[in-house]
Design brief:
The chain has helices spanning 8-21, 40-43; strands at residues 77-78, 89-101, 104-114, 118-123, 142-149, 177-182, 189-196, 202-207, 211-218. The protein is mainly beta and 220 residues long. It has one domain (8-55, 75-218): Sandwich (Immunoglobulin-like). Strands 1-4-5-7-6 form a 5-stranded antiparallel sheet, with no helix packed on it. A 4-stranded antiparallel sheet has the order 2-3-9-8, with no helix packed on it. It is globular, with a radius of gyration of 16 Å. The relative contact order is 0.25.
Length: 220
């Protein structure tokens, strides 16, 4: 189970740069051995790397299990309250992982904070960094964009916890999903991009305790 985070010193530089132009580069990653995964079912997948941390979920966590989190679709998805901020408070990305299940692949982005942001999900032909419009560095043929409304303000974020941002993450345990780019919240909005080998049906949901974005990509 791979957790993608950035060391403190680098994060403080990157975070300051992100807020100005959202074009920072040079993030590094490391694995945190004491991190508890948000979805233990994915950790037990036979295609999970043996070097990844495996542990049981806490009793408070609601797990999606080994079944898709919803009905697969290729069209856009909007939550009922999009683009309202909802009841979310202090939500920002702190870790990400990937796994393979029977018939689909899963990307999970875990967040600090509480509540449920509103959400828009769609395939985009012009993936660009929010604010700056810079190229994302995604080389895949299809890009799935997830936009969260109601995420953290700058004052509510702990940059020591913020995961790797702005640069493509490619060391995934998946095949169809080949890269992920995560951006920190900006003006209470967060943007995530998943690079895929082709446009595939997907299902998406938000789980609590902790707050998690779960994206399932159909492979069958």
């Amino acid at each position: 189970m791979k957790y993608h985070r950035t060391p403190t010193v680098v994060l403080r530089f990157v975070f300051a740069t992100c807020i100005v132009g959202l074009t920072a580069t040079g993030c590094s990653t490391y694995e945190r051995p004491d991190a508890t995964p948000p979805d233990a079912s994915a950790a037990s997948s036979p295609q999970t790397s043996p070097t990844q941390q495996q542990s049981e979920p806490t009793q408070q966590q609601s797990e999606p299990g080994t079944q898709p989190v919803g009905e697969f679709r290729t069209g856009s998805y909007e939550s009922d309250n999009w683009p309202d901020f909802g009841d979310a408070k202090g939500v920002y990305p702190v870790a990400m992982r990937s796994a393979v299940h029977d018939g689909f692949e899963r990307i999970v982005i875990e967040h600090a904070g509480t509540g449920t942001p509103s959400m828009l999900v769609r395939y985009t032909d012009e993936p660009m960094a929010p604010g700056s419009g810079a190229d994302l560095g995604i080389d895949q043929d299809a890009v799935l964009e997830v936009v969260w409304s109601g995420t953290s303000s700058i004052d509510d974020m702990d940059v020591d916890e913020l995961m790797q941002v702005n640069d493509p993450i490619t060391d995934l345990n998946t095949t169809a999903a080949q890269s992920v780019v995560v951006f920190p919240p900006f003006e209470a909005t967060s943007n995530y991009f998943i690079g895929l080998d082709e446009q595939r049906p997907y299902a998406v949901t938000i789980l609590q305790d902790p707050v998690r974005l779960v994206v399932d990509i159909q492979t069958d």
